[in-house]
């Protein structure tokens, strides 16, 4: 319905105008009434009427003055003057002040119906034209902006489109990307359509001027006016609304990369580069968030590294929690710094994984036994996007080794015994003795032997033998190593002696299995 404001200092006239026409049947509604020009101006500001019907002469203010004030304010409404004065000078003044029509009292109903119909059609025609012009300008603006974002020459774009000028002021670019998800294509299409609707709505109610550009079926770029801090906060609010509403409505998520602030349209491509640069960091920071280029650039310089030797040493000592602790520090440092390329993280993790695998599964058969597959770190990591998934991939490698290596676990708070066990795990494939262990730990053999037996229930040699058998069993299970070869690899030079020990080990383990079944 189009809104009508009635202005007349006589109540009876206003009431009559309300009743003589079925306003709704012709597409209008009476939105308000005023008894003078001053009230009319106030109501115009509040109601934004489409049509003002006013008397030309009123007790407190002149209708002509009202028309002139509305013209001065560039109020977008049609004005119909009703007057009891059949004076050509009044008509001239009214038309000069932008009145659409001039009617004499008493009002001819048929003539008023005709004029209101004309006004209605004029308003709708103008709105259609305005809408088409706005749609064209919007498409042109989006087309030009997308070209500039992709690095088109600014001067050539301006030359090719002389009718358009990129708005002055400070701008930033936001790149909105739907996070990839293993869903059917139809679901992804629905999600993208929902994102389009959400962006359209948020852009329409935003206090900022926003240019929306379709990039592909997973991304939108928004170029946002940020004249001051207030506008910047409003822009971030708009982006947060898009992020949260999209997740709530679709179950999918988006990650948004935002650029720094720029002042010239010929720098748009740089802002777009910044968005893509920070958007790549979602692999480190995770999805469903806004990543700011300014914060990204403020990250700590340099790249953390993994002390792979320390990780392997901890694993050889069966201190798998310690190994994970070293890796936890690395991944925490990566996330904290923000500006480390994901490719660099993958490279560091791949190098560490290769060293671990070579140490604990030196051939393909052992690898198959340990992991159930031939592990190819570089190729496997190429398929992973998110940093937490890279971390989990490495930890799964470690868990597989842990499950094969830890047949039994000894809990002890005795530092001397802990260091002795670590020494055995590190030197089991050499000719390590109680004396050498005691010398390395600066204690007597008698004191070390007593402490070790008290804490573990085994002698030093019993534990060394059991640990060697455990390592040998892994080698032999691959089917690649003979008894004699396995003996040499775990520290025995006498294959026959080793064979007897290994048979006892297997028999004892079988007895243990049977007992567990009975239990």
TrEMBL record:
Modified residues (4-aspartylphosphate): 55
GO biological process: phosphorelay signal transduction system
A GO-annotated cellular component: cytoplasm
Signal sequence coordinates: none
InterPro entries with a match to the protein in the record: CheY-like_superfamily, Homeodomain-like_sf, HptR, HTH_AraC, Sig_transdc_resp-reg_receiver
Keywords: Cytoplasm, DNA-binding, Phosphoprotein, Transcription, Transcription regulation, Two-component regulatory system
Any one GO molecular-function label of the UniProt entry: DNA-binding transcription factor activity
Domain Response regulatory, residue spans: 3-120
Domain HTH araC/xylS-type, residue spans: 418-504
Function of the protein: May play the central regulatory role in sporulation. It may be an element of the effector pathway responsible for the activation of sporulation genes in response to nutritional stress. Spo0A may act in concert with spo0H (a sigma factor) to control the expression of some genes that are critical to the sporulation process.
Protein name (database record): Stage 0 sporulation protein A homolog
Species of provenance: Qingrenia yutianensis
